[in-house]
Amino acid sequence: MLLLSEKDIKKSLSMEEAINVIEEAFLKYANNDFVMPARTFSKVKDEDTLLIMPCFVDDCIGLKVVTSYPSNNTTNNPVTQGLVLLNNRETGDPLAIINGSVLTAIKTAAVSGVAMRFFMKEAETVGLIGTGLQGMYQLLAAVSSTSVKTIYIFNRSSEKTEKFIQEFRTISKSDIEIIPVLDKTELVRNSQIIITTTTSVSPVLPEISGLYENKLIVGVGSYKSNMRELPQTLFEDLDYYYIDSEQGKKECGDIIDPLKRGWVKENQIVLLSDLLKGGLKAPQNTNPIVFKTVSMALFDAYIGNYVFKKAKELGIGQEFKL
Amino acid sequence: MLLLSEKDIKKSLSMEEAINVIEEAFLKYANNDFVMPARTFSKVKDEDTLLIMPCFVDDCIGLKVVTSYPSNNTTNNPVTQGLVLLNNRETGDPLAIINGSVLTAIKTAAVSGVAMRFFMKEAETVGLIGTGLQGMYQLLAAVSSTSVKTIYIFNRSSEKTEKFIQEFRTISKSDIEIIPVLDKTELVRNSQIIITTTTSVSPVLPEISGLYENKLIVGVGSYKSNMRELPQTLFEDLDYYYIDSEQGKKECGDIIDPLKRGWVKENQIVLLSDLLKGGLKAPQNTNPIVFKTVSMALFDAYIGNYVFKKAKELGIGQEFKL
């Protein structure tokens, strides 16, 4: 069995590669070429949960096991921790154990990368609301999928902001300009792409009509049914609402709520995978484009299988005789 | 994170210890001192399935992930393969990955060991039907929980029998007499305890009235709803039908069928955990005693947590920085 740590994953996989791999996974999804049993959420205590997400795709059984512990926000422990397990689909053989926290972060960013590349790869300005670990990876995905030259980040704590910027420079090895702003409206005005990665229960973007013209909004956070990041205004001039997984209609407040309130109609919700499969072009008018990702086990299994094979080929990782 | 292989488990845990640990787990069950979310079975192909069994007990989240591939019967791959994962219940931290196949084999045998010790620890003769890996571990449990001096095993292939006996001698380091028999009635007549560990869909014990007087029957195999090991005769003079888990009434053919056909009444089915908790004595009349184990995630989590702590204490296992 092969063990892949955070370092091993980073050595095996570039963000650009991850975006290409996830684009392949989108096509698997569009072609229904996978089996994805229901994922289960088990309450451990209060809001702390154990998530179990299986998927069978190609030659592997992928299983993501993640603990999501909001109670860790008050300690030094990460909120999300976990593993991705791979087994041979043909024989059941355990093949690999992969750091699930890092793989999840890279995968989630790569999903956004696919969307940014598809909808607005010429964008030169990107705004970010939510400067946690996921925000960092989202910026790396923006670097790999667009022509970004200036990044605007929203953050109240200047100390945290400084640390975030330094870390981004180290990881991305880029000298892209990063400008912290304290006003979200300014951030949106200056950015062609706006990414939100918060766990907010109420909209984190301004309710200003016309503000979002010609822009791409990528909603990454607020993945639960009681959470919301996107404002009502956004839906006023929307042609379509792009999402990555059918499951989102049942699980995600940013999709459930707009549907329930009639801001968006069921037939306006379009799977990005179907656009990719159809070889379609991104819309060309000035209406805002909104993409929301809720992700799914298929992505984790697919990219896990890819990293496993790549690492094996490169001789990366630690062997363990079970 | 600590990784525990087959060898590490065997170094950390004796069968006698395993029996004591599982007896503790029975008391946890009786006291309802655990949380056990529903286990899920996902079909991979035909009869090949992925089993996911979570349980929260004491300070750990235990998760057993096992593939059960009957299709491997035609190849050299084991039918059951898997892992037990442990996370810190308080923080979500991944703590350990343990060889799930070996831990399952030991645990299943230890469950029988608890029953044999409780119902008939003075037994000097044990008969076994089903000489696979599980049969081997059952005999080791019998050695640790009874006064067994002679073992009768039923097997048609003398070559396989010879190999099985040699292996038992090596592992058990005992010179207990083992006698292969070709007649099941003879096996039952000669044995005070009879253990069945098959995947049969029809009874593997003879339908002879009075044959089971004064005997303890331990049913370990045929864990699915369409499987059956135990004969109707067995239920004729039964006081109680002892089982290890409520879940068995829904999942196990050897419990479902006798209930449905009226051979046994719902109120005759008794949890072994309740006897242990109540400090009760084993029945003293001559009627057969029947114990059927279907097991549950609680046992895996509990013994997994024990092995993890013991191995850590002894410095056994391989550390892995995730």
Automatic annotation (TrEMBL), chains A, B:
Top-level taxon of origin: Bacteria
Protein name: Ornithine cyclodeaminase
Alphabetized InterPro entries for the sequence: NAD(P)-bd_dom_sf (IPR036291), ODC_Mu_crystall (IPR003462), ODC_N (IPR023401)
Any GO CC annotation of this UniProt entry: cytoplasm
Lineage, top ranks: Bacteria, Bacillati, Bacillota, Bacilli, Bacillales
